[in-house]
Amino acid sequence: MDARFNMFGNELATRFGKRFASASLVIHQSSLPKPTQELVSLRASQINGCGFCVDMHTKEAAAAGETSTRLNLVAAWREADVFTEAERAALALAEEGTRLADAHLGVSDETWAQIRKHYDDDQIAALVCLLGLINAANRMNVIVRNPAGGYEPGMAASFAS
Question: Where is the Carboxymuconolactone decarboxylase-like domain (predicted)?
Fold first, then answer.
């Protein structure tokens, strides 16, 4: 599959991408656990059908030591016993925050209560910003049909430079 448009080869898109990647560094440097960041990004990307981001976040998570069992069960996290209660809350937020058009009320009070129980204010801010960024990245990649499979761990860090 070929991309419809090379976002990495366009000057305007490249300038935007660098700023986008720089914004993500704020989240990556936050106290939100790195495994949670990757699981949330992976789940949103699965929901949005973004192969490029599924590829990226699966590989980044594996490179950081995430197990194949947990990665393989992200899509079925409700039926899996390999995620902590905090991770389950974050995955619920990822689903509800990604599927806004499917639920007119957006994120449920129950899910929000679980987020408040397990995360501090900075971690919540990081989660909310992460969901905004990953959903935007998913949409851009799906629109241009950016193909999956060629991502190598660490490539995202080079986007910001």
Answer: 26-96
Q: Is residue 118 part of a domain?
A: yes
Q: Tell me the CATH number at 144.
A: 1.20.1290.10
The answer to the question of residue 108 being in a domain is yes
Q: Is residue 77 part of a domain?
A: yes
- Total domain count, the chain: 1
End-to-end CA distance of the chain: 28
pLDDT, tens digit, for every residue of 76-125? 999 999 999 999 999 999 999 999 988 778 999 999 999 999 999 999 99
* pTM for this model (two decimals): 0.94
**How far from 126 is each of 2, 14, 66, 96, CA to CA, in Å?**
33, 24, 20, 16
Backbone angles phi, psi at 28, to 5 degrees: -60, -30
Are 60 and 40 in contact by the 8 Å Cβ rule? The answer is no
Residues in the chain: 161
Round to whole Å and give the CA distance between 56 and 41: 9
